Amino acid sequence: MMHQQRPAARLSPSGDTEDIVALLAPRLAYFAGVARTEHVTRAAQEMQVPQSTLSRALVRLEEDLGVELFARRGRTVALTPVGRTFLAAVERALAEIERAAEEVRADTDPAAGKVAFGFLHTMGAETVPSLIHAFRADHPRVRFSLVQNYGEAMLERLRAGELDLCLTSPVPDAPGLVARRIDEQKLRLVVPADHRLAGRKRIRLAEAAEEAFVTLEPGYGLRRITDDLCRQAGFVPRVAFEGEEAETLRGLVAAGLGVALLPPPAVPRPGVVELTVTAPRAVREIGVAWLEGHVDTPPVAAFKKFLLSRRGRLLPG
Question: Which residues in the chain come in under a pLDDT of 50?
Fold first, then answer.
């Protein structure tokens, strides 16, 4: 019984890049090895592959490309002009693949790998530097790629695989993510130093119902918490200004442009007074989140374990 032989695969000028890469990549190292030695047998010995395998790979590569890469003279070969042009590109490609392989191996090294870590702007001045300092006492060579952003933006980067872990607030409850509560942080009502309430130490949030508020923009976790606390106190905040960073809001308060619910500052700021809110309970929960089902590299696993061990004592002081 005779079987019709299927024609060999060919590269179409309009073919998809992914198809071309899948077809060519396994043969590029063979091509480069033969080009370097100009001898098929010697190249096969150096690369520890059967000569027949190497010869077939070169023939198929030329067929796929539709060009002659080598001029053959018995057991020796020499690059054609087209082959020399192709070799230059292949060597660059192989060097880039080798560099990428070394980079990912370095990033997953248990002792000196890398952690992509996201956190809120309000944790950048004191909390995160203290955490990393404590972690590196036992893991001095682990490297960090640090990203500061608001909560929703960090979760999107987490889903996209750009972050390994993130510290955020509120603690997310979303499909595809795992989150663990680590700590909570008290929020204070910040008022100008010459404000009618500035002589107080404590206040019920309802007493600020008529005040203009400066807040973070919608989409920020702290904005959502502010809106919720005001709702619990029986009013909707009258928002005068919206910003993207807590210390900017403190500056607006110091300028007399409103009041704000904010976490404590890393360094006290002149021109404002920070009041303890007695009702409702004004806190924000802080948690660590990661992608569900994602396999951690050793350095990420070590840092995740460290963060979870800080339950109840995440924040300085």
Answer: 1-22
